[in-house]
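idk why but the lab printer keeps eating my pages so im just putting this in chat instead. protein + 5'-O-[(L-methionyl)-sulphamoyl]adenosine:
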Amino acid sequence: MSSFYLTSPIYYASGEPHLGHAYTTILADVLARYRRRAGEDVLFLTGTDEHGQKIQEAAAQQGIPPRELCDLMAGRFRAAWEDLNISHDRFIRTTEPGHAAVVSAILERLRDNGLIYEGEYAGWYSVGQERYFTEKEVGPDRKDPVAGGPVEHIREKNYFFRMSRFQERLRKHVEDNPEWIVPAGRRNEILGFLARPLGDLSISRPRSRIHWGIPLPWDPDQTTYVWVDALINYVTASGAVDAGAPKGRQGFGDAPLPSRWPADVHLMGKDILTTHAVYWPALLMGADLPLPRKILAHGWWVVGATKMSKSLGNVVDPLGLRDRFGTDAVRWYLMREMPTGQDASYTPERFMIRYEELSNVLGNLVHRVVSMVKRYCGGTVPSAPGHGLRREIGQAVDKYRDSMEGYRLHDGFAAAMELARTANGFVENREPWTLARDPQREGELEETLSSLVRVLAVLACLFEPVAPQKSQELARRIGLPRVPRLAELAEIAPGGQVVSSGPPLFPRVEEPQPSRAGG
Ligand code: MSP
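predcted complex ->
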């Protein structure tokens, strides 16, 4: 069985989970579920980013120790992912002791490779983004260029990583591997970034200012920069570095350990692409570790022209629709509505259009087919070859797979919905109700219903990554023990299963009113 390792970003434990986090995580979940359906052995990693100034300040504001805030927020994220049916295999917290050990081992390796030096940093820092920005980036208004938050001027001792040494190797890697950063627009952005001289990366902060973090192994008066700490989580969870082993046997360079590294795909929003596509690969090169196989940057949920963000107080939250429409419907909306990589904005009207597809096309098909099997065949799926729609199924599955492999999830799900639409058309053309009145045409009736049940089995498989609960329910209604895997679709032979009816999979619901949350 081939293996697949995918990661979501790890979320700052300073704030509540919101739509932006949920979108990234659902996207990762859909990919993980798709890969499992394709028969792969998946490791899906998510977690919380728990160190640094942002957490330190948030905890101080609330008057609690940072650890307490982290425990609380890690719990909130876990609960949110449970509510959204996220199927992660591992939830990492950067305050786990095992992680600190891996961070130290990697920093030591960089230092042994002659890539660390001491220097003075003078410049602008944004706590919101946990990043330095140049004079030019903060502009005359002195605002962080990502979210427009405040920046502070800082002058202090830091250790630096010789990131500039890797500029050429990295630029060549991006050039030679056009599919490494997707979508292409984002890749061009990074190529543009790498066309200008790349500075070195500050990797530590004085402990007197930031105490909440991992001390540098050779200078405990300095705290590891939170992005260095955070990015390394991907390696920690993979098992690629054994920090407890003697130097030379820790997994670097020519002596790799059996592990899940390199990741098959890192997923993140476009706001944190540079850290993932520049800092991270440079750090990996410096530590003699292989690079991730792919970096996928998605767009933002926007309100007007700005990112939906808690700090901006403009969160209009479709997650609130779960109560009325169900988790699967919200997942469907988020995945179907946003072309992977582009921005999109939530509106109640668009939500309804997407919901009605589920209810009028997919839900309706399920209802009709199950009712007809009950009415005309006593509830048992007829054993007929079921050749109807074979070509259409083949084409839909091909398009679906091709889109999913190419990370165009919206296209993949559009193909699945199109198949359901075609199947509804097939019902209307064949008119099973007319066939049922004519004993001479019983064979045709059986053939028609058997074909339709086959389509439903295929649809259960195609929709499972985005609508896991409803797909399981669909499989149950047509008498299957579980949702089939992709490789099983060709052999599905309807016949003999007992169908069961139930309430509509996607019941009619009134249009949602815009709801406000967060702030
Ligand atoms: N802790 C860092 C990531 C470290 S990864 C080694 C971080 N955390 S975060 O809590 O700010 O969450 C970031 C993720 O949420 C990003 O993928 C970001 O793009 C996503 N989103 C936050 N707001 C968003 C929208 N309005 N729309 C879509 N996603 C956005 O950054």
